[in-house]
Write a structure and sequence with these properties.
With 289 residues, this protein is of the alpha/beta class. The protein contains eight helices and 13 strands.
């Protein structure tokens, strides 16, 4: 058996007791080897979530045939299901402004087994990170900035949507992109737009929230990774990271700690999505890991 031929099955359905048994029976019946099976039956919402990773035998049911066979189970249990080949990387568009640390971190981790992504383009509303993108051998696009503030924003978002559609983008990664996306841009890449922001702070200026945390003498700082939505920093949360700080931290130390926790949380968010571990559960998420 070639155990490198792995496939994934993601399942969401109304809560039931025998769906997992039906899935495992279908797999073992055809000599597929189950490498990992994770599930959650949410009693409060009545939803069932399951992620199955399995290996294809050298002879037996092929992936396309398995998909056809599983459709009968899907109809029987009213299942919303997707079949994935994890060897195919996710095509990612990265949006940035002037902060480089999240872009640098994602670029370093972009190969499996860390992040199964292929960066199609880095796009920005500023030209500051073009040299960095060239060093990383990644296409860099400066979003147009002609006209009034509102006209510029509309033109930039139109260009972003062109990149998403023209390059077959799977993930839109807001790597400290200091712009609020419009309703059209949030809905268009539904469930594939991901953001990182500095939490634990009451600052109205996200670019300076860690600076203000230092000035107020805060004892903890945090970063939240979530789906990008129309409501600023209100999308379903996928990952969070917290760091303790105190009066002995110099400003430079606190800012460096802040950048690190943003990198940790954002990269875990991207990894969880690139491995198909994230399921929407109302306004919350289920991350099967």
């Amino acid at each position: 058996m070639n155990r490198t031929d792995r496939y994934l099955l993601g399942i969401t359905s109304p809560g039931c007791t025998d769906l997992a048994a039906a899935v495992t029976s279908l797999l073992t019946e055809k000599d597929w080897v189950i490498a990992e099976l994770l599930q959650l039956n949410d009693i409060q919402t009545g939803q069932f979530f399951c992620r199955v990773e399995f290996c294809k035998p050298e002879s037996g049911l092929m992936p396309a045939e398995f998909s056809n066979r599983f459709s009968t189970i899907g109809e029987r249990f009213e299942v919303d299901w997707k079949f994935f080949d994890p060897s195919v990387p996710h095509r990612a568009l990265i949006l940035v402004s002037k902060f480089e640390h999240c872009l640098d971190n994602l670029s370093y981790r972009k190969q499996p087994p860390e992040l199964n992504i292929y960066i199609t383009t880095v796009a920005s509303n500023h030209p500051d990170l073009e040299a960095m993108a060239r060093f990383l051998i990644v296409s860099f696009k400066v979003l147009p900035a002609d006209g009034s503030k509102f006209a510029t924003k509309a033109t930039q978002e139109e260009r972003i949507r062109e990149l998403i559609e023209g390059q077959g983008v799977d993930l839109v990664l807001l790597a400290r992109y200091m712009q609020v996306l419009s309703k059209e841009s949030c809905q268009n890449p539904a469930e594939r737009c991901f953001n990182i922001y500095q939490s634990f702070s009451s600052s109205s200026d996200e670019a300076r929230s860690f600076h203000e945390a230092y000035e107020r003498g805060e004892e903890a700082i945090g970063a939240t990774a979530h789906y990008g939505t129309l409501d600023l920093d209100e999308g379903p949360i996928i990952d969070q990271e917290v760091a303790r700080v105190d009066h002995t931290c110099r400003q430079g130390q606190l800012l460096a700690t802040g950048r690190n926790i943003e990198n940790y949380s954002f990269s875990r968010e991207v990894r969880a999505n690139s491995e198909h571990r994230v399921f929407l559960n109302g306004h919350k998420t289920v991350v099967l890991k």
